[in-house]
Design goal:
347 residues; alpha/beta; Spore Coat Polysaccharide Biosynthesis Protein SpsA, Chain A; 2 domains; 7-stranded mixed sheet; 3-stranded mixed sheet; elongated
């Protein structure tokens, strides 16, 4: 058996196995109607210096065909006019009070927002998210009780943001269909309270990842979906340093909490990407393997963000960046980080 056949056979097996990840990135079909359901939803937005992002999110909520019972912005000691912007847009603004010992700013803000909310359903939403037209209704159509998380579709505007590509794929593939994301969580109040609320995960960077097993332990269901056509966001618009810091904090801890079978599938895919990079140096037929993985990357990226085709075709650059930051997250930098002026720790 010549090297060409060996290379193509091994690459083909890894490529076929990687199709399982592509399927996970598909938005699920809609469920039943949602007439009147939005009036049971309180949207809680923890916000610390989010003057740049809040107008886009609040405007996207205002144009929804179904409106929530209320929008609560929990202003976490902002210094950029966040509370004034939120109030002018019609949101109810509350201050969470001094940050207690052992809490993170976000978990404390979410907990205080939940305490103040009137709705039977609680939606916790990061300030850098924004709904597509009809997006809130689309989320509600897919809600079957318990906790549902949505991973927003990543809107990228500058080339350095392509560095988030593989992180996005891994994040979605390792969470769908039964894990929880941190950017958007819809949960009924009973399930929230039975699981101990955000107090149960008050010190965690990946609060919803750690909240997930607690909800299940109390009999609640958990589910997750990609947000293409429903909810989007722009991550790390502040530059490459912000992006590296953001993906470093706790990312390895999140992967460690992923089911073993999923980790194995992701590992096969990553190994296939590496194999595709090396194969052309062994035999010209290796370009077939490289091309197959590059096209698969293009297809995956279209499901998690508006990454250009060239980003997928030049995936080795993205892979080297991913592996470098991932290795960094395994060390002290992944346990401790500074985010929005506060020190964070990932247990």
């Amino acid at each position: 058996m010549g090297p060409e056949l060996i290379i193509c056979s091994l690459g083909g097996v890894a490529w076929l196995m990687s199709l399982g990840l592509l399927r996970r990135l598909q938005v699920p079909a809609s469920g039943a109607g949602t007439r009147g359901m939005a009036r049971e939803v309180s949207i809680v937005i923890p916000a610390r210096n989010e003057a740049r992002n809040l107008p886009l999110l609040l405007e996207s909520i205002a144009i929804q065909s179904q409106q929530p019972i209320e929008v609560i912005v929990v202003d976490d000691d902002s210094s950029d006019g966040t509370p004034e912007i939120a109030s002018a847009a019609g949101a109810r603004v509350i201050g969470p009070g001094p940050l207690p010992e052992g809490w993170r700013g976000k978990t404390w803000a979410c907990a205080r927002g939940a305490d103040e909310a009137r709705g039977r359903l609680l939606m916790f939403l990061d300030a850098d998210c924004r709904f597509e037209p009809g997006g809130l209704e689309a989320v509600l159509r897919r809600y079957a009780g318990g906790a549902l998380a949505v991973c927003p579709f990543h809107v990228v505007e500058r080339p350095y943001e392509w560095g988030s590509a593989i992180f996005n794929i891994v994040m979605v593939a390792s969470t769908v269909p039964h894990g929880l994301f941190g950017q958007c969580l819809l949960i009924d109040r009973e399930s929230y309270q039975k699981a101990g609320g955000y107090e149960a995960v008050k010190g965690n960077i990946l609060e919803n990842v750690n909240f997930c097993p607690r909800i299940r332990a109390t009999g609640g269901a958990t589910s997750a979906m990609p947000g293409k056509g429903v909810l989007n966001f722009r991550m790390y618009a502040g530059g490459p340093r912000e992006m590296i810091e953001g993906w470093t904090k706790g990312f390895a801890a999140g992967v460690a909490s992923t089911a073993g079978s999923t980790v194995a599938l992701i590992s096969v895919w990553i190994s296939g990407l590496i194999f595709g990079m090396v194969a052309p140096f062994v035999t010209p037929w290796g370009w077939c393997v490289y091309g197959a993985f590059a096209l698969l990357m293009v297809a995956m990226l279209r499901r998690v963000g508006n990454f250009p085709m060239v980003a997928g075709l030049l995936y080795p650059v993205l892979l080297v960046f991913y592996l470098t930051v991932f290795i960094r997250s395994l060390g002290p930098a992944g346990k401790k980080a500074t985010w929005k002026g506060r020190s964070l720790h990932a247990p």
